[in-house]
Here is the input.
Amino acid sequence: VKVIFDIASQSIQLLYPTILFFFIEIYTTSQETTNLENQNKLLEINYLKSKIYPDFLFESLRNIEHLAAKNDERASFMILNLSNLMRHSLYQTLNKRIDLDKEIEFLITFFKLKNELLEESRKIHYTISVDGSKNLKIAPMIFFPFIENAYNFESNQILIQLKNDILKIETKRQ
Here is the structure.
């Protein structure tokens, strides 16, 4: 009986390191998978950002060049607004969350600059209404794809409304 007990005891002692090894391996693999998924999401976001902004940037620079060649005073206004947009898109997007106020400032600057580039019939009239959610933090440039689509589909009215933590984005074409 003692021999059987000794053999069983030794077997259990050999099993503990094996079980511990497998738990550590499972935990390590899980952590690596989570890290890879997070890196993949970050790469996807950065890829989308790089695709969204260049067309607007190049169009703005072409228009600024055209205005500067004519000594138009709007060129300096556009340069200032474009630099504010670039600053926001380069630095604020490094944060996972930013103040809603900063994102709204970005949108207003974008609307002003974009409307400056458009003829009167294509300009977008926008309304931004935020009720009681001033301290809200959101992902940077989260509204931008919706706004860009509104321009692409020639909507001329955009309503962005945040009320009771419910976001409503409405576009119309008239």
Remarks:
- DSSP finds four helices and five strands in the chain.
- The CA atoms of residues 158 and 171 lie 5 Å apart.
